UniProtKB/TrEMBL annotation:
To bacterial alkanal monooxygenase alpha and beta chains. Residues 15-302 form the Luciferase-like domain. This is Luciferase-like monooxygenase. The lineage of its organism: Bacteria, Pseudomonadati, Bacteroidota, Flavobacteriia, Flavobacteriales. SUPFAM superfamilies: Bacterial luciferase-like. It comes from Maribacter orientalis. One of its GO terms (cellular component) is cytosol. One of its GO terms (molecular function) is oxidoreductase activity, acting on paired donors, with incorporation or reduction of molecular oxygen. PANTHER family: LUCIFERASE-LIKE MONOOXYGENASE.
Length: 337
């Protein structure tokens, strides 16, 4: 029987020029509701700090808002940057979410700061030390969620025995070793960190040790997706993404700009090796074009789930892109093996 590929969403709550943060949060909820209707498995929110263009900084609060406004789609973090936080506090936050929204909350954990070095230091003065202790910090969270922790001196009482699956996120091979050793599902940030994807997946599969939560490896991969009625329209919409990535690489960060026609200058910049490397796993075009490219990506990686990242200026264009991507995934899942 052919393996069914799950499809999900990773949202950074990108703020478009001329919109407010409240607009951005309202759109996130509208998108999650549309995603639920289209059969998406989960809606994850990232954690970022000190960026005017990214609204997902108080991640657990946004997760609660999305979960409250939906009925069945899983909602979680993609991810919580654990070195920024006390494991006890995260266990309490996500234990509480898990009680309020049973069997719907995911806890994805990463070790990057999700910001610049100066801000990371402002968040937590011993950030570097905490990052080096990431495996131990993950272990602490697992203890806090276990029923056995009821006998410990330090407890996250609202988390004990609560069903909140933990996912290890990564953008390098380090995380692959950890996820495999712990027998946890592994999500790779290939929507921007493309270099180590194949190697990381290989390590994870080779070293995977079955655990209480997972009998066999489970992998998720981030991909940039922009789908429109035609290749030309998708290319026009994608100019906002290209400008955002170029701004990121040149240190000129700002709100997401409205799309324009693809100029010769922007096309030349988009061909820059750094931009091409970061957006290597970006599938932009009509339904037919994206379906062909996504099918090849799944064949190459053998992942169990795709996490689609769709950074588009206009909210309705974004929802439409996700609806078209859902149609692609349903078609691929229904094809004969």
């Amino acid at each position: 029987m052919k393996k069914q590929i799950e499809y999900s969403i990773l949202d950074l709550a990108i703020v478009s020029q001329g919109t407010t943060l409240k607009d951005t949060f309202d759109h996130a909820l509208s998108l999650a509701q549309a995603a639920e209707a289209e059969g998406y498995t989960r809606y994850w929110l990232a954690e970022h700090h000190n960026s005017v263009a990214i609204g997902s900084s108080a991640t657990s609060i946004l997760i609660g808002n999305i979960a409250e406004g939906t009925k069945k789609i899983r909602v979680g973090s993609g991810g919580i940057m654990l070195p920024n936080h006390s494991p006890l506090i995260i266990a309490e936050q996500f234990g509480t979410l898990g009680i309020l929204y049973p069997n719907r909350i995911d806890l994805g954990l990463g070790r990057a700061p999700g910001t610049d070095q100066e801000t990371a230091k402002a968040i937590r003065s011993d950030f570097y030390q905490a990052a080096m202790s990431f495996p131990d910090e993950v272990q602490k969270i697992q203890h806090y969620f276990s029923s056995e922790n009821a006998n410990a001196k330090v407890r996250a009482t609202v988390a004990e025995g609560v069903e909140v699956p933990i996912y290890i996120l990564g953008s390098s091979t380090d995380s692959a070793h950890l996820a495999a050793k712990k027998g946890l599902p592994y999500a790779f940030a290939s929507h921007f960190a493309t270099t180590h994807l194949m190697n990381a997946l290989k390590i994870y599969h080779q070293e995977f040790q079955p655990s209480e939560v997972l009998e066999k490896p489970y992998t998720l991969a981030g991909v940039n997706i922009i789908v429109a009625d035609t290749d030309e329209e998708a290319e026009r919409i994608s100019t906002s993404l290209y400008r955002m990535i170029i701004g990121l690489l040149t240190g000129k960060r700002g709100f997401m700009q409205a799309p324009t026609e693809m100029t010769d200058e922007l096309r030349a910049l988009s061909q820059n090796p750094s931009v091409q490397q970061m957006l290597r796993f970006s599938f932009i075009g009509s339904k037919e074009t994206v379906k062909r490219e996504v099918k090849q990506f799944i064949a190459d990686t053998q992942v169990d789930e795709l996490i689609a990242v769709t950074n588009i200026y206009d909210g309705q264009d974004r929802i439409k892109s996700y609806q078209l991507f859902a149609a692609i995934m349903r078609e691929l899942n229904n094809e004969d093996s």
